[in-house]
Amino acid sequence: MDTEITGRTASEIAADVRRLVDSGELTAGDSLPPVRHLAERLEVNRNTVMAAYRLLVRAGVAVTRGRAGTSIVDPEPIPEEGFSRDTTLHDLGSGNPDPARLPDPAPVLATLANEPVLYGEPVIDPALAEWAARWISEDRPGPFHLSVTGGAVDAVERLLAQALTQGDAVALEDPCFLTSIHTVRTAGYRTVPVPVDGEGMTVDGLRAALDAGVRAVVCTPRAHNPTGVGLGAARAEELRAVLADHPYVLVIEDDHFSLLSRAPYRSLIGPGHARWALVRSVSKFLGPDLRLALVASDPEVATRLGSRLSPGTMWVSHLLQRLAGGLLTDPEARRVITEARDHYARRNDAFVALSAEHGVTAHAADGLNVWVDVRGDARRAARRLMRRGWLARPGDDFSLSGEGAAVRHLRMTVHDLTDERALALVRDLAETITDPDARTSP
Question: What are the structural domains, with CATH classification, of the chain?
């Protein structure tokens, strides 16, 4: 195929490769010529070809795998959160909150004042900003600037975009929240996996990622998805110490579970860290359709983020902001949120205890899900459970490295199961794990 590639400059060579991809002459998985070979044929410097390949990688057209060379990217679909469509199985993989545990917005909606917001007005509703500043100050007593985005995913995407360019490296937890994987890959950033253990992101993993030149770190301080673990006090202190030598690496904390969490908030953002953001979405306790997240950050990040949320173009609807603010300050809504927190914890703990009685190891430190060890290939175990009427999400969906504990775990959303259904699931899990050849029809 190298005989078809033409060009004298890096941009010309990259453009010609893209032409071949667009025309179908190069397809996913096809290898590009070795740098030296193509440079000799085109009679250009090897650095020119290397620069062309870097342009292709940054554009998401190609991927470089060290000694394996550079090849055209295969745009594999990335699993996403939510219900699986067109299935008659009991879906345990949705990761959704219980609709019955979300506050009813109708009473608050009826009280909202009809105050139109016009172009050029402040982008943050004053009442919501006042409440959010008090709330976040309880965990971050130092100075910060407040922004409002259209949910946590929108926040992380904009925060990375204001600091990075295509090809830059981002440290992500491994295993990792599905949407974070999707956000980073579709933007053309390189992912650097940081292993997660029982206390969260590992110190050695973070140190290695920083040594590899990451320009941003995305971390879940508690209710890590999918494992449910949270940062311990000692671990958080160690991570802050590692980051102290890298104050200008952007650190994003996605505290998605916040009001529902039973774990304390422990941050890896030290008091002297220069570039940071804390993101708190309302989707888990007010509902996924209320697309809003509160972002606390340093002044520089806030300024750059603000340029992407300019008045008149990209602000978050003030109607949504007023509704969120009204619910967050309404006694009845807060009672529902508190009851939901207790419900998720109680149901998940009960499932873990029931699993242990049947020889199944499950964990539910915090969050909406349980993390079940199937002692083998999780994808194979998921297929066996499908034959019994259950749809579970295998842990390797969340894995960046494709190895480690994730490949032998299932993530399950079980808080809405009745006691009877929970018992049936645990029995099916036990038989699936201990009897690989078990074949029971749904």
Answer: 2-72 (1.10.10.10), 90-99+333-434 (3.90.1150.10), 109-330 (3.40.640.10)
